């Protein structure tokens, strides 16, 4: 038997068994004074563990490493669910308020449209000016009249049956009721 191949195996197998030996060649040549730096593990074990910086290791490498506690998945999921629910409720509430505001604005536009249709059906004997203030009256026969004269300007004798509204012409040619 040869000293170099103690297992009596072909050279390739002998080389792979050297990797499994507890004292690899680079460790055997170190002196006994360097015990703190000697790694007596087989090569396949030395390569199987984390090799980076100690502070970035995904698990504790020494006794003095900080304690790594397992994550309670139920608690993690419960907290995530609670946070998600809270955020969703806030967003839904905000969207509801925005929707209510939009509905309110749409109703105001619809009311303005109805008033505008009524005014454009009335007798208008002049060309209204944008942002001008006018007064809507009703005659005794039920027809309506748009006038530039306010009810208080007529004095005691109002020529119409009743005053209905004071209105302002807006830039989009719709009418807004002022009073």
Keywords:
alpha+beta, 179 residues, single chain, rod-shaped, 13% strand, five-stranded mixed sheet
Number of strands: 5
Distance between the termini: 119 Å
C-alpha Rg (nearest Å): 47 Å
Largest beta sheet: strand ordering: 1-3-2-4-5
- Secondary structure class reads alpha+beta
What's the tally of helices?
4
Order of helices and strands: HHHHEEEEE
> Which spans have pLDDT < 50 for at least 5 consecutive residues?
12-30
Major pleated sheet: 5 strands, mixed
Overall domain count: 2
Note the topology.
Blueprint: H1 11-20, H2 25-28, H3 43-48, H4 73-121, E1 123-124, E2 133-138, E3 144-147, E4 162-169, E5 175-177
Quick gist of this model?
This protein is 39% helix and 13% strand. It has 179 residues and is of the alpha+beta class. Strand 4 (162-169) and strand 5 form a beta hairpin.
What report would you give on this structure?
- The chain has 179 residues and is an alpha+beta fold.
- The protein has two domains: 46 residues, no CATH class; 104 residues, no CATH class.
- The chain contains four helices and five strands, in the order ααααβββββ.
- A five-stranded mixed sheet has the order 1-3-2-4-5, with helices on one face.
- A hairpin with a 5-residue loop joins strand 4 and strand 5.
- It starts with 10 loop residues before the first helix and ends with a strand.
């Amino acid at each position: 038997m040869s000293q170099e191949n103690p297992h009596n195996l072909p050279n390739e197998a002998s080389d792979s068994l050297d990797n499994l030996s507890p004292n690899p060649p680079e460790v055997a040549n170190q002196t006994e004074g360097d015990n703190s730096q000697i790694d007596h593990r087989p090569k396949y074990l030395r390569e199987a563990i984390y090799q980076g910086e100690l502070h970035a290791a995904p698990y504790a490498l020494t006794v003095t490493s900080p304690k790594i506690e397992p994550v309670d998945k139920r608690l993690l999921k419960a907290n995530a669910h609670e946070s998600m629910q809270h955020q969703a409720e806030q967003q839904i509430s905000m969207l509801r308020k925005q929707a209510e505001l939009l509905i309110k604005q749409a109703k105001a536009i619809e009311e303005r449209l109805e008033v505008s249709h009524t005014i454009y059906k009335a007798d208008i004997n002049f060309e209204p000016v944008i942002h001008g203030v006018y007064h809507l009256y009703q005659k005794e026969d039920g027809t309506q009249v748009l006038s530039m004269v306010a009810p208080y300007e007529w004095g005691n004798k109002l020529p119409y049956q009743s005053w209905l509204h004071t209105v302002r012409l807006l830039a989009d040619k719709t009418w807004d009721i002022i009073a």
